[in-house]
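Design job #97: recover the sequence.
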């Protein structure tokens, strides 16, 4: 009866007759920081709200003259089907092993000499470098 008098929006009774309540704590948003290389991943396949940018590693073997500054990456039908979970992925396919992002097939950008470049790759075209 004492618990009801507290007029809490949510009452939780744990084993051992321990009463509690759920609380909402506002968390501060993470501060964005510039990175040299990053790409887009989807946390839960089929849940469009779980897209996020993660920091990637630029391979030391890549020469600076071979880097492309990506300015546009298309979202095509395959990407949309993967993102919404409507396209079943075969886990044994070699393209999918050890890859955390299958989103991104095509990109457009510039090389260090400001020449326009269009490219296609199997994944991670939603990237910044």
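Job complete. Output follows.
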């Amino acid at each position: 009866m004492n618990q009801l008098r507290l007029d809490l929006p949510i009452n939780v009774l744990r084993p051992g007759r321990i009463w509690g309540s759920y609380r909402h704590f506002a968390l501060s948003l993470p501060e964005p920081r510039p990175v040299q290389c990053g790409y887009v991943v989807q946390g839960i396949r089929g849940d469009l709200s779980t897209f996020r940018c993660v920091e990637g590693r630029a391979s030391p073997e890549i020469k600076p003259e071979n880097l492309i500054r990506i300015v546009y990456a298309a979202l095509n039908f395959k990407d949309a089907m993967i993102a919404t979970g409507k396209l079943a992925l075969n886990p044994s396919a070699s393209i999918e092993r050890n890859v955390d992002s299958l989103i991104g097939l095509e990109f457009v950008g510039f090389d260090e000499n400001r020449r326009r470049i269009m490219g296609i790759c199997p994944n991670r075209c939603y990237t910044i470098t």
